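ok here's the first one, seq then struct tokens
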Amino acid sequence: MKYHQIEAFYQVMLTGSISKAANNLGRTQPAVSMTIGTLEEQLATRLFDRHAGRITPRAEAQVLFEQIGPVMHQLNDIRYRFGRLDSIAVPRISIISSSNVGMNLVPSAISDIASSGQELRLMNGSAATIVSEMENQRHDLAVTDEGAGEVPLNSPLFETEVFQVPVCAVYPRGLLIATAGSISTEELIGHQICTLYEENRAARDIREKLHSPRVEFASFFPMACFAVASGSVAIVDYITCSALKALTLGTLQVEYRPITDAASSPYYLLRSRYRSRSKMADRCYEAVRAALTDQAAGQ
């Protein structure tokens, strides 16, 4: 059983109706009905009798309600207690991110906070690892790209905000004749192209337009470095371009141009719901959020 199923069942039992439960949960009635139906399938039993649009709990539902009642009371108590916590100093703030944002964006965003003496832990991981770590409340916040799987947008365990970052072509200076500030995928045909690996969801759009590359990578930054060294074109995003410029101090003979007909690259800012909040954690969150907002705007 999953938490959203238990939560839906609990609300239906408390309110006595699908419509009231949906209203309390901020979901639609069909969504709650479907959730209850899925729960019944997984338990291989009927929990409710349904007559003329009304539902009546069966004995099985009463047994389940008694079993999960204490758990729901504990979760509600946790929410209440954490909601009343004042912003207090904590010894360490933990942030996990994908390697692309972990190289420059996150460290740059929180550098002033770190210089004030606040203890921080910065970790890297794949998208799947980051989601798992955040579900287990092991970090205060996280930033991840899309990876091979979907990042939950409505998790009960962490908040999620999505930033759509422009996609760019990175290549050695002079490789392409610049006719405008941007470029189309058609203008890249005939060049050696590098993209993210096939299973990565963010690479699907560009690979459909430019076909399979000779060289594919797990992340943007090493791909950009390879393209510059090998005379090829890397399909990256604006965050990668910013990191490359910042970390090489502009010494590379490289050009960056946004691709007009490429789907943007999504990044997800996650924040744990049940870790202690603090003023410094709030500052870190807002600093990283501001940096992602700038990158999404191509600034």
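and now the second one, same deal
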Amino acid sequence: MMDAVVLPSEAMLEFAALNGRHLPLLREWVAGHPDAGVPRALLACVEADGLGGEELGDEELKAQMAGAFKAAKAENGRAASLVYGLFLTSLRQHRLAAEHLLRHFADYPGDEVAGLMLGVFHASADPALQRAGEALTEQQYQFMGPQSWAWASWLSWVRAEQCRPQEAIALSEHALGLFPRSGVAVHARAHADHDLGAGAESVARVDGWLAENPEAVQLRHLNWHAALQSIACGDFVEARRRADEVLKRSDVGMRAAANWRLLLAGQSPARLSEPDHVRELLAAPEAMADTLHTFNLALALACESAVEDLQRLAATAEGDEREAFREVVAPVARALAYVCAGAPGQAVTLLEPLGDALEGLGGVRVEREIVHDTLARALAETGQGERAAALLEDRLTRRTHHRYEDLLLTPRPATAFPAVPAP
């Protein structure tokens, strides 16, 4: 069984590492094995994300996946199961993909190729599935043993998400010791560093790895993490520079998450997303495809103080049949509207009761904690500084650099909230 589940080719090795060297190798693999379904499905996934040049449309993606599935079925059950999981993942059917992976790993334990899809558990925005994914990752690491840098990397990411940063760091260092090009391990370390407020040390670590892996799949995302560390240190000029130089027009969510933090801290933002572009995204069919995507669009609107747009988005979410949209996205969007309208007290009323329900936003803690930031600032604005400090106490205790949190709690004149962007 062990031989059947490890990464089968150099292309897969680099794919799992997310270091950006996989695309030409993957194309060579497909060309050399035209009857193999898994490499064809992986290449289709890459091209669907626009990482291989022009982005595949949905119909072309489905056609390529259908061909890959037919080929995989002719090979064996594992290949067919992998392609089916990749198909669900590529269509953002996160819940179905997560449920499928649970069955897949029961049949093919330790499968490192299937490990590429582990992100669907957190993307499902289902706390039960998220916990199942974390438990699954730990089980697979135990099954494969410490010689698997891939599973060490994935478990490192899980430990960071579980707020166990020291364990995450140890696993990340172990994985990088086995395979220095593991972008997954570097990303996990960035999450652990965020938890600890590592600051400039984390920035240097990210920049050093990116200098050796300039084609990394997560180049922009790792730079976003570095920008957040600059914000943590109070180096807002550097945070804006990095956001403006690295993030693309399509990085609406990362740009909004950085800018909203800057605004909450009373600072000028980096370049904002174009309002018309955000509205186009909101009008697209996939605008409400998953909660995190919708939340990111709400943040982008908040950075523009687009109160009416936020209220419309909240009303749409309230009418959605999915509980997470009604019970989480709607009050968060409406609270952002109140914040932008200068009514932080009403934002507090909406945000305080959410508690653990915020997990329904999907994504990971670093993406969701901005809601707590907003609540803390709203509490501070309404003269409830002690409650705001209590909300952030754990962070202030744990993080070496917390200039950002200090500014969230700092009394400021009762002017427009958040800070008015500089011209």
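notes on #2: The longest helix spans residues 58-75. The chain is about 70% helix and 0% strand.
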